[in-house]
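Database export, one record per block. Field names are fixed; values are copied verbatim from the stored entry.
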Amino acid sequence: MVTPALGFHLVTATGIPYRLISSAGSSDGTVETAQEVYLMDDDHVAAFLRESFPATTVTSGVPITNTRPMPGRTRLRTVNVTWEPFIQGKPIDPFFYDNAIAPAVHNETYGDLVQVTIDYSNEVEEQDPEDPDTYLEITANAAGEYLHIATPEAKFNSATRSSDGSTIVNGTDSPNTYPTGVPATIIVTETEWTVTWKRVDRQWFDDVLISRLRNAQGAVNSSKMPLLKDAFPETILFGGFTYGDTRVDPSADEHNLSGSITGVNTSTETFTSADHSLEDTNIIVFDSSTDDMPEINGGPGKLLASKGYYIVGSTGDTFQIAETRDGTPINISSTGQNLTWTSKSRNLFVEVGMKFLEKVAYKASDAPSSVNNSNFGSIKGHNDFYDPKEGGWQRLKVDGTNPPYRAMNLSDLFVALGEEVG
């Protein structure tokens, strides 16, 4: 905890002293915004930015980014921070760039008080790894398809409408004179769901999620999908995914880490690197100037240069490595020579969108008679096709045995590292 400076009676959650100059806000009952203005020492600005926009962490296997909440109004979270000199006409150097070049004149040239303005909004929701609604964006849009079919059993009816147009009066059926059936167009109404995972750990995407997505393409759900409002089995078809460009955490420069290995303990599978700042689940890449990488599992195999390994068992000066996140430490059989390492990937994220098509159909005679009269037992899904002879939807077996779409648990797409999140 930082001791509050003279006159700075307030401190942030990480102990940064400040004075509240002003506070204002607005609300229309739905969207709420607020703005605070702080006064603080220039050497605390960088730390305040890190507190306002912390590095993304992986909690319960889910990449989570939560910005700083507004004191006393925690449902509002930081969306923007700006800073400027408190004493007009005197510049500030809050990141001490010039101090590193000319420290002797720094205090004479620059002011040491900074006015910091923080904007908050309730449109930035706190992310909870146990609640997928807080980190997944889910939208639905109307969709549909046209079926152009011949209806051999169809008949025309001389139905009329009442004079006020409000009632259909059934008439007399006439025989079907079309030898191949009456040509008809049927609109199959559908709903297109899009589930967007805004920040997916890139390494986890490469190691785990991409294979799940490819395996699931063209499959229907074998059971209800809680994430899509308990959609019924086989009514959801996974249509594919979108992949966004690499996203770098705003504080990525701070976490582009590197260091040297000063010791390897083959009894405990432990590497020593003083003050390495690595955390479990970070990914590390080794290199050796002598191409003498440590042997593993009794040899002759060695650690591979430029391959990513997960950090496990991290302490202040030591760590172990594993092939998978939270995996078993790799057995280290020799120490190697002149080892160095880098770690950047924990701040690399991608955006993934998943497309699902929901189809709910009924045979006319089984369909609900009103919106409040459900008949879920007669629901037809993607493996049911329109049979014009029967005048309704029938399950189709394309080879006499199997339906067109295989069924699988599509909720497994949202299982992060063995823990279901949707």
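Remark 1: Residues 10-129 form one domain.
Remark 2: The chain has three domains: 10-129, 136-245+353-420, 257-343.
End of record.
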